[in-house]
Amino acid sequence: MLVCLCLFFGAPVAHAQLLQSVLKDNADAVANPSRSTVDAVISALADAAADGVPTFLEDWRDKAIWMRIDDGVFFRAVQDGDGLTLTDLDSAAQTAVADDDGFDQIRPNAGVRRVINAALVQFQLSDADVTRRIAALDAISRDPAADQLVPLRVSIPDEPDALILARKIQLERQLAARFDADASVRIAAIADLSGDLSVEVRGVISQILTARQFVGRSIPEGTNVAQILSIGDDLDEAEAYQLLVAADLAPATVTPDDIVATLTAQIESGMVAGVDVSTLGTDAARIAAYSTLVVSGDAAPFILPEDRASALEAHTFYRAYSEVNGDITAAAEDAEAAISTQLGVGKTLDLTLDALSLASIYFLAAIGLAITFGVMGVINMAHGEFIMMGAYTGFVVQQIVPDYTLSIIIALPTAFAVTFAAGVAMERLVIRHLYHRPLETLLATFGIAIVLQQLAKNIFGTQARPLTSPDWLAGAWVVNDVIQISTIRIAIFALALLFLGLILYILKRTRLGLEVRAVTQNPGMAASMGINPDRINMLTFGLGSGIAGIAGVAIGLYAKVTSEMGADYIVQSFMTVVVGGVGNVWGTLAGASLIGFTQKGIEFFNPSNTLAAQTYMILFVILFIQFRPKGIVALKGRAASD
Fold this sequence. Notes:
Blueprint: H1 2-10, H2 19-25, H3 27-31, H4 38-48, H5 53-61, E1 65-68, E2 73-80, E3 83-88, E4 94-97, E5 103-105, H6 110-124, H7 130-142, H8 149-155, H9 162-179, H10 183-193, H11 199-208, E6 211-216, E7 225-228, H12 237-246, H13 256-265, E8 271-272, E9 275-276, H14 283-295, H15 305-313, E10 316-321, H16 326-376, H17 383-400, H18 404-429, H19 438-460, E11 476-478, E12 484-486, H20 487-509, H21 511-521, H22 523-528, H23 533-556, H24 567-580, H25 585-605, H26 610-627, H27 638-641
Antiparallel strand pairs: 1-2, 1-5, 2-3, 3-4, 6-10, 7-10, 8-9, 11-12
Helix pairs in contact: 1-4, 1-8, 5-6, 6-7, 7-9, 8-9, 9-10, 9-11, 10-16, 11-16, 12-15, 13-14, 16-20, 16-23, 16-24, 16-25, 17-18, 17-19, 17-23, 17-24, 18-23, 20-21, 21-23, 24-25, 25-26
């Protein structure tokens, strides 16, 4: 059958027959299919190259083919009450009959349907319909078999679609590694797969390296040994002896249950082994009675330690590959080692990308707080609520502007404006009256945070609100099956870099930045130079709040938008600022990087418990500030003295 199918795929046929003609030539085998006749029908269909063969095979498999008994003509049929709607297999012309008498439904059994499925996949590999070719490749991937290799190879040269061609080549290498008759071809295919980290390839290598455990007095000649097992290192003595027992190479040990069962079976008139049953209440008494039965030949003897040791020493315990060719398994072992190395590198890179993503989120959340804390010395416990306000601003904008891309473009400056105004109002109404009173400032901003949370609940409710990212931010950047990161996280990383550059520009290249740095380092001297510290404090607090609002839009694109979302980031924001160094942009970047990488490292070793990872992270920060209380990048001036 494979030869016929390959000829069908590989060379044009000069004169294609009608499908009905081929079926009538094999009418009995089609009408009464069996495992012994179905191959002949499929071969005849392949030889004839009739139009509609894949569709016929699908209908035959699904019991949708009926035969008219009078003349043996086959139809595709759908039952309609007591009648049938018939479709001609060649012309597709439809007719209706009022009664299905005179027609016989073809019902292939499960074994025949499996053969049809295999043949159908082979036909579909070269089908003009892209979806059929993809379905065929999916079927091969789910259930690979040796008889799929040749048709798959024949279909590759004429494949027009680049993506499908790449997948066909990958599947061909996988099938060749497992099923090709030529050992050198298998070895070459395995070498080709050694750079592929996909789950399918790892499964292929694992299949080739399948091994079973054996025991014998010697290893049979020609055995492809995977490992010689050592008693004590690979097997304990009890486990090894049980393997001998299971292989009928040693007598079974006598267990306490065996002793009880043997004694029970030999009880006569309340006596066993010449002892009254009532005296056998202890292990020692039962063992003594059992020993009497052993002496009389009525029970299996105990296995002495020296006998067990002798039996273990006389046998070899080993694991042998199911694949008998040692060169093939050696190539598979090399491929497995190469894949393991690449997996380790890939997991490290993936962890690095995750850590960079988390660090960028923490940087966005904390940079506004760092500026506010550094310039004003204000502990703003409501900073997380400005993040929440920014996220809700994005949600409101999306309700007005349904285009997700445009809404995000509008939401970013709108969120900045809303939270900037809120920050300025908060500084003018509350914060400026509490300078140099850190405890009162902390309590006041904590109270404001609670008020803002409750206002959000009253306005938006307690249910999470969606902040939907545009389609171009959906999906992920996938390098391979190990290294991948979502597109939205890449966008947040880019936004963090953008704001890093923007803030550095403002602080280093603008008059506002010059005044902010002056007030940060020495407010008294700055005031004597004509700088208004109150104005700088107001603008700085507004700027920090505005940046928090933009961070809220970015965070809301992948996290839940609720009234409590700010509380999820306030702790991390403060840790980032304290670890990095108060009031320093580079310190905030360093702190966000350190915390992001450390947290992801902790989660890597304990992935099932993120709460524990956060706890360990806090402990790490506590220890860190014991040794470096001014942070990674210490600030000079007022903040340092404070």
